[in-house]
Design brief:
Rossmann fold, ten-stranded mixed beta sheet, eight-stranded mixed beta sheet, 36 helices, 4 domains, Calcium-transporting ATPase, transmembrane domain, elongated, Calcium-transporting ATPase, cytoplasmic transduction domain A, alpha+beta, translocase, ATP binding
């Protein structure tokens, strides 16, 4: 793998040299290895994508019903059924038109051009023409075009967060590493798709195209099949149930009618009428519209759903596997603690905004503020700003940094005390420097400081150093204490090292600082020319203090995780960062609790599959993991029956995002790959938005279940009314066109209005639903039967009264027809909530339902009183007394359900 070989061995194996390949050799290798690009998977055609919207069993049943209706001459029935099916397909197709583009978009992250050395000459070529053995030059800002082994480096740091998840750029080296070094720690390698954050270097390409780590991820992503959502499974289960029930009903009526002496053809027609009554023609379209409206609401809450059925999956989620960097944290290194003059100062403010305070202690309200004029703090921050190559600048959308994030954190801390780096650089110019290296672990600059206030730095030439605490302390013989430069004692060194350990235990990255005013004769020219050795320039230093920095958690995440916990959702952190850092952040956020486990990638590798599955439910933090590990965690949780949501922003997250039940990508910092592999994108990169999305997902499913139960009551009522009337009185109380009209207007506008019902109180204090129970449970069937039987009793009362009154068949059918419609309008208010009274919710809090019911009432009145509609629907006008009976009976649908809710709420309170 080249990382464990010295440079000469790498050159020998790749058959190249520091002068690079010849054009002829490069051409041959291009034919052998192929272009440096990622292979695209076969795209799904627009036609196939459209057809995929009609795979549901319920859709198939509806198509069969339309064909049967057409064969029987019921052209209007067939047309309406096919229209609703087509509408559902169009809505789903439009939402999913931009489907899977993961591997195609991986290409956009590769560098379009690269600087390569061939035959000893530098030249720029398209990165697609790079081959193994090519020598490439790297400098700050470059996107690395292929996997390569470092052969030269000058303070080279590479941002590998998109591949490994680590927030701090990796310092690169040229030395060979021990065999078995983990991929994240192979600091003599660079990888395609990552970026140079600082410095420059030279590397020999070891792998291109699909052979790179990036390419292997693309291959892994292409082998993962996205599982069907719980809603898709539930709708299919419901479709099978409806289909079976319809066949039984048709067969039963036909056989029984023939047995009682009715003509077989009449019995078949009545059986079809019952089938039309049983099948919810509008359900697919209404569910699709309901999901679409949910998608619109979720966009307002910063969550963009890519596939409609995925909206509901969030409501069933019981585990969220979250990436740390940029998701739970801000992905902005921030100085949080400063140690000067034997005291710890707390630095407020987050991110790159230079607005903050310096406080003593841990309580902002009570702690005294330390002035930026404090000489000890001033000297340390001056060192941090001058011994630094990063910059802070402001744009319209906020403060930005240029350079290494760790150095930028120091510039921000200095700015909080009023030090602007650009002004400092101008006022105290850098005369020379000794750059940071992985061997020295420090950086030193030499600045002209002839007008700094105070006596401490009263010298024309001052050296400022920053670096690893043990290195800086090792070069110090003095300490800046009590406003004076004093001799550094052994005891003071031990005290400082204890502070270093304490800060490190808080998962802070510790950096030490020192300075040295030089006497005459110690000029920068002598240092840079070598007349004064570097060792002498960096000795006899004055220790000034420490900083502790980290990538802090997002402020709103703690509350979001508590809400998840209340909602029965476990949060798991999965990160490429170190175990100590990950555990500290997880503990602070409330993810890692007592008795929870933390596993590293190497520890995970050592576990057998069965052993890991037994342990996976107790693990809250995974650290130093790679893409295959993340995928393994997601799959293990799914095997345990969990509905898993996975959040992430990097290329390394893409396979797990696609494998999870709900992949959630970051919209701002997320790579195109992670977005296309996901089911949902957070447009504000805010973990807290997931909680809002979960609530919306739960509410969407609650609303879907409620309006399906509402429709079920209607269909059960219709079936029972027709069945009992046929068997008891040998008449058809509803014509087929009237049944279709009832289905159309009761399954249309009211369910769509119910789909915008706001969340119930306490929705996020309920446990996630069991996905095995499906859309319709015993509770919904009981409610459907109860109200369906009540509507049947209402209709039978009207039927008997009409017969006794000697009404014509048209009048009888009109009354039963109108009663069912109005009873279902009252019933619509029942299903705003299956728990709470409509009066406690507020009659007018869902105005859409008011408009839907009023529209339906107007349409029904038109069917009864408009002449040409009377002819089409075989209706006759009704008198005021007849309307009084209909409304009195229909209102019992609402009254009875209110009584049931009151009784059930009393039991819950007990």
């Amino acid at each position: 793998m080249y990382y464990d070989q010295d440079i000469s061995s790498v050159f020998g194996e790749l058959r190249t040299s520091v002068k690079g390949l010849s054009p002829e050799d490069a051409e041959k290798r291009l034919e052998e290895y192929g272009k440096n690009e990622l292979k695209e998977k076969e795209k799904v055609s627009v036609f196939r994508l459209f057809l995929s919207q009609f795979k549901s069993i319920l859709i198939l049943i509806l198509v069969i019903a339309a064909i049967v209706s057409a064969l029987l001459g019921e052209a209007i029935d067939a047309a309406v059924i096919l229209f609703t099916v087509f509408l559902a397909g169009i809505l789903g197709f439009v939402q999913e038109y931009r489907a899977e583009k993961a591997i195609e978009l991986l290409k956009s992250l590769t560098s379009p051009e690269a600087t390569v050395v061939r035959n000893g000459s530098e030249k720029k070529i398209p990165s697609t023409y790079l081959v193994p053995g090519d020598i490439i030059l790297l400098q700050t800002g470059d996107r690395i075009p292929a996997d390569a082994r470092i052969i030269e480096e000058f303070n080279l740091k590479v941002d590998e967060s998109s591949l490994t998840g680590e927030s701090v750029p990796a310092q690169k080296v040229t030395d060979a590493l021990p065999a078995g070094t983990s991929e994240a720690d192979r600091n003599n390698m660079v990888y395609a798709g990552t970026a140079v954050a600082y410095g420059r270097g030279k590397a020999v390409i070891t792998a291109t195209g699909m052979k790179t780590s990036f390419g292997e991820l693309a291959g892994l992503l292409g082998t993962i099949e996205r599982s069907r959502t719980p809603l898709q499974e539930s709708l299919d289960k419901f479709g099978r149930w409806i289909g079976g029930a319809t066949i039984v009903i048709v067969a039963f009526v036909a056989v029984l009618g023939v047995f009682l002496g009715f003509p077989p053809l009449d019995m078949f027609l009545w059986g079809v009428a019952l089938a039309v009554a049983a099948i919810p023609e509008a359900l697919p379209a209404v569910v699709t519209v309901g999901l679409g409206l949910g998608v619109r609401r979720m966009v307002k809450r910063h969550a963009l759903v890519r596939k409609l059925p995925s909206v509901e999956t969030l409501g069933a989620t019981n585990v969220i596997c979250s990436d740390k960097t940029g998701t739970l944290t801000q992905n902005k290194m921030t100085v949080e603690r400063i140690y000067v003059d034997r005291q710890i100062l707390r630095v407020t403010g987050g991110g790159y905004d230079p607005d903050g305070k310096f406080l003593k202690g841990d309580s902002e309200k009570e702690d005294p503020e330390v002035s930026g004029d404090d000489i000890h703090l001033r000297v340390l921050l001056l060192s941090a700003a001058l011994c630094n190559d990063s910059n802070l600048y402001k744009e319209e959308d906020g403060w930005k940094i240029r350079g290494d994030p760790t150095e930028a954190a120091l510039v921000v801390a200095a700015a909080k005390a009023g030090f602007e780096k650009s002004e400092l650089d101008s006022k105290y110019p850098r005369l020379a420097e000794i750059p940071f290296s992985s061997e020295s672990k420090r950086m030193t600059t030499f600045n002209k400081l002839d007008d700094f206030p105070g006596d401490v730095l009263d010298s024309e030439l001052v050296a400022f150093s920053k670096g690893a605490p043990e290195v800086i302390l090792g070069s110090c013989t003095k300490i800046f204490l009590d406003g004076e430069i004093k001799t550094l004692t052994h005891g003071q060194k031990q005290e400082i090292l204890e502070e270093v350990k304490e800060l490190a235990d808080q998962a802070l990255r510790v950096m030490a600082f020192s300075f040295r005013p030089f006497e005459e004769g110690f000029s920068p020219e002598k240092i840079s020319s070598g007349k004064i050795p570097v060792e002498r320039a960096e000795e006899d230093m004055v220790f000034s203090g420490l900083t502790g920095m980290r990538d802090p958690p997002r402020e709103e995440v703690k509350a979001a995780i508590r809400t998840c916990e209340d909602a029965g959702i476990k949060t798991v952190m999965i990160t490429g960062d170190h175990k100590v850092t990950a555990a500290a952040i997880a503990r602070e956020l409330g993810i890692l609790k007592e008795n929870d486990l933390t596993l590293t990638g190497s520890e995970l590798d050592s576990l057998e599959e069965k052993e890991f599955e037994d342990r996976v439910e107790r693990v809250s933090v995974y650290a130093r993991v790679y893409p295959a590990h993340k995928l393994r965690v997601v799959e293990a949780l799914k095997k345990k029956g969990y509905v898993v949501a996975m959040t992430g922003d990097g290329v390394n997250d893409a396979p797990a995002l696609k494998a999870a039940d709900m992949g959630i990508a970051m919209g701002i910092t997320g790579t195109d790959v992670s977005k296309e592999a996901s089911s949902m994108i957070l447009t504000d990169d805010n973990f807290a938005s997931i909680v809002s999305a979960v609530e919306e997902g739960r509410n969407i499913f609650k609303n879907i279940r409620n309006f399906i139960t509402y429709g079920l009551t209607c269909h059960i009522g219709e079936v029972l009314i027709v069945l009992i009337a046929i068997l008891g009185w040998q008449i058809l109380p509803l014509m087929a066109v009237q049944i279709l009209w009832i289905n159309l207007i009761t399954d249309g506008l009211p369910p769509m209005a119910l789909s915008v019902e706001p969340p119930d109180r306490g929705l996020m204090r309920q446990k996630p639903r069991n996905v095995e129970e499906g859309l319709i449970t015993r509770r919904e069937i009981t409610a459907g039967l109860g109200i369906g039987i009540l509507v049947t009793l209402q209709a039978l009362i009207v039927l008997v009264w009409s017969l006794e009154s000697g009404f014509s068949l048209s009048k009888l059918q009109t009354m039963v027809f109108t009663l069912v419609v109005f009873s279902e309008m009252f019933n619509a208010f029942n299903w705003r909530s299956d728990r709470y009274s409509v009066f406690s919710l507020g009659l007018f809090t869902n105005k859409a339902l008011i408009y839907a019911v009023l529209t339906t009432v107007v349409l029904q009145l038109m069917v009864i009183y408009v002449p040409f509609l009377q002819l089409a629907f075989s209706t006759v006008p009704l008198s005021l007394p007849e309307w009084g009976i209909i409304l009195a009976l229909a209102s019992t649908t609402l009254i009875s359900m209110e009584i049931v809710k009151h009784i059930n709420n009393g039991k819950r309170a007990d």
